[in-house]
Amino acid sequence: MSDQPIFKSGRPDEGWTAMYGLTDELVSYEDMISPEFFELEREAIFRPAWHYVGRVDRVPKPGMYFTKEIEVLKASILVARDDAQDVRVYHNVCPHRGNKLMWEADASKEVSGRCKTFHCKFHGIQYDTGGKVALLTEKEAWLGNQGKELALAEVPFEVWNGFIFVNLNPGGPKESLREFLGEKYYSGFDGYPFETCSERYFFRANAKANWKTMIDGFSETYHAATTHALPFATQPSENLLMGAEHFGIEGRQRMMIYQDWGEIINFDYEGLTRGFGTGPRIEFPKELKNLPLISNPTQIDNWGSVSHKIWPQMFLQHYNPGWYLTYMMWPLAYNEMRFEVEIFMPEPRNFSDALAQKASLFMFLDAALQDFSLLEATQMGLETRAFNQYPLTDQEILVRAFHKEVYQVVEDYKRERGAEIIGRS
Amino acid sequence: MSERNGAVLPEQFSELNPFVARWNNRGMQNQYAARVSSTMDEMQEFYDAIKPHIPEIKQYLDSKDFAEYSEADRTLGSLVFAWVPVAESVEVFKQPKVPDSKMYWDIVDEPQCF
User: What is the predicted ipTM?
Assistant: First the structure.
């Protein structure tokens, strides 16, 4: 690759930062290195939020289920298809003695499968897929109706374009998913055939870094020319080589588009497999290419990828010619996170398709490792407090906007709680 | 394990049989693990042996539906999947691991194509 910008940026004359009403002030990352700040985030950001836990396609038939661990809220979720064909979401906890219900070998690990009843490993009580007692052991020993009235606790959830979101706010959701996402996002994807990408890959890795380090990493594209110099074969340059074409801010949701960087075969294995770091270059069902307006507001023909950042810790990203992925950055502690990647591809028609898919995913995993390995270095660097404030470029508008929002939400929470505490006394 | 590793390839690819024992790993997690636990010399040998056959393997396997695959066909397909991370090491990184990285993925789920 030559030392030329690979596409002309769609940058507005005043720059993205000014266009979105932000300034060039230096940014503090105290929000990534303070244990106290993390405890506030848990309550202010994660408690009231809606969280994506999986797609409905994972439970197509009655009795199918999967569990989801949400450590930041100390929750274990059980998603199931009941016998009446409806999706149900429960706390994955037996209402008898509080034992975790569905798990195998290691109770901290997620499981999935299909069963007629959920069977507690402690006293053998079984619950049907509708959450009611199906088999009560030691029936005579129960006092009054307490045994037969046992039922799994339901978790509020909503299904949005096949994506299941749960809400764990005590006392119920503060706002509907429609209000949480905002009308444009809530209805903006209607009709897009996400379900056509029926092949699911799921990858996971932990890092000793704050959850926002990874979000920041995926909130700009131009690091790719350095972090992924291999395999993109870029050379050090003062030009913007891999910048984004468009940045969008819509309430708390953010988006970014970059153009198709072209079919550049730098290595033999790319040509042989038709797999590339940006995905397989094979024929896809046509309808997948036609993105909804919200994903391509400027109607660019040669879009390469469109990344939506959904508040607080989710990405939903389309890749040319129409596969997509989700990222979840789950916090475990102020300096520890679990990164989850779900990749959805259309069914391969033949071996060549399958090879192109698997090859592109091996490359994707190696590229993501390059990103991922940086995070611990970032966390360590920030924690030295060598600097208290940092500059951001115009291409890092979404990093700037995200931290501003995080600080704001935590401030608002502190003010409300302060008012509450004063009101009580 | 021994039975699977003893599997042979379809007749016309029999010259690749010596690579089956070491490289017939099913699933991305095992295919990746084989790469990071191999030396560059071992990978170079496997890389060189498979590479010229890939167009022919694609043509051969593309002529069948996944449901029609024999065990030998599945072995052949897996061998090519296992070749991909090896090719990345040989062509791009020149070492078994991604430079500047210590961790790797937990590959929890992937479609079984065949």
Answer: 0.95
